Amino acid sequence: MSPSQFRRLLNLLCYGVIMVSPLFLSSCYHASLEGPSKFDATIKSADDIRQLNQLETQLTVTPEKAALNPDYQIIHNIAVPYVPEYRMGPGDVLEIVYNLKYGKTPEDYRLEVQDKISINLPFYPQYSSSVLVRSDGKITVPLIGDIMAESRTPMELASDLDRKFKKYFADPAVTVAVEEFNVKVAELRKAITTASRGQSKIAPVTPDGRISFPLIGSMQAQGFTVSQLEKMLNEKYAKQVRDLNVTLILLEIHYPKLYILGEVEKPGAYDITSVPDILKALAISGGYKKSSELKEVMVFRNEGLERPIVFRVNIQTALKTGVPLTNVKLKPGDIVFVPKNHIDDVNDMIERIFTKGIYAVLPFSTNISANYNLNNVTVK
């Protein structure tokens, strides 16, 4: 690596990482001005190693420092970098695991829709009947008519029926027995055991951001974390099936694309696990070439907007004046273009490079222009 390449990489690191102390800022500042000859330590003796250890201790992010830095979080009294929880998008694949609990519970069973029960009057068998709990939660009983059954225990229903039948018989002695129950569980088991995975189901997030689930239908998944969707699923299933717990496992992640083109070492489309800033984008593409025009770096954005926009970032000026380029956050689908020469006509650039060059990937053509403002400093 040549000295100029080393200096360029060091500049990217100094302006692209989390700044945790003035000492680190100072070392980056001097390194950017004086080149690779300025080191924090030179190891020649045991004393040098001790000084290096002291420096590392001084720069270590402690829980006390992390409490003042939003880029860190404290877990079990250990400071770790904060990583936002992944939010799902189209193409991601989930495994939905259904855990049906069959253990003994102290609560009496409560009737559900589609349960089949028998109502017996031992001294008046002609009025005994076998009925299904309808979708409205009711059953129809001879002489009495409709009566609510859903969510009641068999004993509660029998007591209510006995009281109502006493209008007609001196001692009805009504009993209620459950013949078929957990019908929705049976339907769910049938829906999820058709595949070879047993009590689980593989479900991709569709292009419209939704997933279809047995019994409860289609639900929005895009934009939610796995834990958020899992919580919503269990709340919905709790209204349908008792003693069911759903676990979601993220099997495949189809990361959004970031397009980095122009005078970089490795132009192309990149999968990104998290949305980077402009300097990290240049880093993952291998860095910029000597032939690049860093005053004219352009970012094209079309995802989720009424119309495409483009803004220009003067990286060269920003690095010299200390404008924090880590604040220039990119979004999925953005196109970063590093030109070779000064751009006089933005719309002509769009026409020549984008509309004709990668039309099949990101087709758009319109009059677009913008500047990027960082901490009240306009980077033109």
Task: Describe the 3D structure.
Helix content is 27%, strand content 24%. It is built from 10 helices and 19 strands. The strands form 7 sheets. A 5-stranded mixed sheet has the order 14-13-17-15-16, with helices on one face. It has helices spanning 3-16, 22-34, 46-59, 63-66, 154-165, 183-192, 226-238, 278-284, 315-321, 346-355; strands spanning 72-75, 78-81, 93-100, 116-120, 129-132, 138-141, 145-148, 175-180, 200-204, 210-213, 217-220, 244-252, 257-262, 268-271, 297-301, 309-313, 335-338, 372-374, 377-379. Helix 1 packs antiparallel against helix 2. The protein has 4 domains: 3-81, no CATH class; 93-103 and 184-252, 2-Layer Sandwich (wza like fold); 116-180, wza like domain (wza like fold, 2-Layer Sandwich), CATH 3.30.1950; 257-379, Outer membrane lipoprotein wza fold like. By secondary structure, it is an alpha+beta fold. It is elongated and about 100 Å long. A hairpin with an 8-residue loop joins strand 4 (116-120) and strand 5.
Give the SSE layout.
Blueprint: H1 3-16, H2 22-34, H3 46-59, H4 63-66, E1 72-75, E2 78-81, E3 93-100, E4 116-120, E5 129-132, E6 138-141, E7 145-148, H5 154-165, E8 175-180, H6 183-192, E9 200-204, E10 210-213, E11 217-220, H7 226-238, E12 244-252, E13 257-262, E14 268-271, H8 278-284, E15 297-301, E16 309-313, H9 315-321, E17 335-338, H10 346-355, E18 372-374, E19 377-379
